[in-house]
Task: inverse folding
């Protein structure tokens, strides 16, 4: 049996706004789950319903075999880390870390032992006597995480905990949070709008849009087997290239050039004759020049971005646009004309009306 189960969960506010629609998910004990999606997609609302900070309008939430809809946050034995840190400014790091245990009436010797244990894990030992205002953003976030893990509850909920940190701090804290979650064995649900955080931290990712789940899967599955245009475009940096057009006599045109879809393995072009499809390919899926068993595209280089390990090349293909990700040693000149090839097996085709991936 799953440790956490959300069954047909809905959130409808008094003004009629339907924030979360029929959310279904089963989470195993010890899993690290990430909810990801754009602002307003319902991910934080879902997290707050799990925490007991928002009422569930419809549906059932289970912890183990116990229905938890009416349980208070404390009864759910959940620890939550907020975006704002939510530290007590008048308390030292030591007292912030031990505050929850103090409220529970835990013996001072036990509190000291646990605070020192957490401080050692998070590199906070030398800051225990400081107030939050004397800490950096990354250090404050460590205190917030430490305050959650010190209670050794079974469930961690984290709502965009890294959004206030700079890029370097985010990278460091990503690995720290992942290591802590796995070392404690806690079940973690983490909310972010940053797909890089989702891809690097999650066992499974829940992609949301407009209150609906779009796809649930491992980072690998979402990247290489996206269910629809939204997931394919949301996961990946730079995003997947999409070109819309109709299939005519088995031919799809990019910038006016013919791509014979009948050559793509397992795709029956006849089923989409006269219909609009979306032709997708990832920026790194291409090879420069004309290659066999590939769709060949010609275009003009509009802009290049040298990033060190790769170069992003922005292409004009008549009325179409694309971004290529190539070896920096092969960076073309701006305004030059180049050819690139997309192997048949690395092309994604989506239904133009439903935007769902076309299998086979």
Result:
């Amino acid at each position: 049996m799953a440790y956490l189960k959300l069954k047909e969960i809905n959130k409808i506010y008094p003004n009629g706004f339907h924030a979360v629609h029929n959310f279904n998910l089963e989470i195993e004990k010890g899993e690290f789950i990430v909810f990801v999606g754009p602002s307003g997609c319902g991910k934080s609302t879902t997290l707050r319903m799990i925490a007991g900070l928002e009422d569930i309008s419809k549906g059932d939430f289970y912890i183990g075999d116990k229905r938890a809809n009416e349980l208070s946050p404390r009864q759910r034995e959940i620890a939550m880390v907020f975006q704002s840190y939510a530290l007590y400014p008048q308390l030292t790091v030591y007292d912030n870390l031990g505050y929850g245990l103090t409220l529970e009436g835990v013996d001072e010797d036990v509190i000291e032992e646990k605070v020192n244990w957490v401080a050692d894990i998070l590199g906070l030992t030398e800051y225990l006597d400081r107030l939050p205002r004397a800490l950096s953003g990354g250090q404050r976030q460590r205190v917030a995480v430490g305050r959650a893990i010190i209670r050794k509850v079974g469930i961690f909920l984290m709502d965009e905990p890294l959004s206030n940190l700079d890029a370097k701090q985010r990278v460091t804290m990503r690995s720290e949070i992942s290591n802590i979650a796995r070392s404690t064995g806690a079940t973690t649900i983490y909310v972010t709008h940053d797909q890089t955080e989702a891809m690097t931290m999650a066992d499974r990712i829940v992609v949301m849009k407009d209150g609906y789940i779009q796809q649930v899967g491992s980072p690998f599955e979402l990247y290489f087997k996206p269910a629809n245009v939204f997931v394919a475009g949301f996961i990946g940096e730079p995003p997947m290239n999409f070109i819309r057009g109709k299939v005519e006599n088995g031919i799809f045109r990019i910038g006016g050039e013919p791509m014979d879809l009948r050559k793509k393995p397992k795709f029956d072009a006849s089923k989409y004759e006269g219909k609009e499809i979306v032709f997708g390919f990832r920026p790194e899926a291409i090879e420069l020049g004309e290659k066999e068993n590939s769709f060949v595209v010609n275009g003009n280089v509009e802009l290049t971005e040298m990033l060190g390990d790769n170069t992003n090349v922005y292409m004009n293909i008549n009325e179409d646009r694309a971004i290529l990700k190539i070896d920096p040693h092969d960076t073309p000149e701006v305004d030059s004309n180049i050819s690139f090839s997309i192997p048949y097996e690395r092309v994604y085709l989506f239904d133009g009306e439903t935007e769902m991936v076309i299998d086979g």
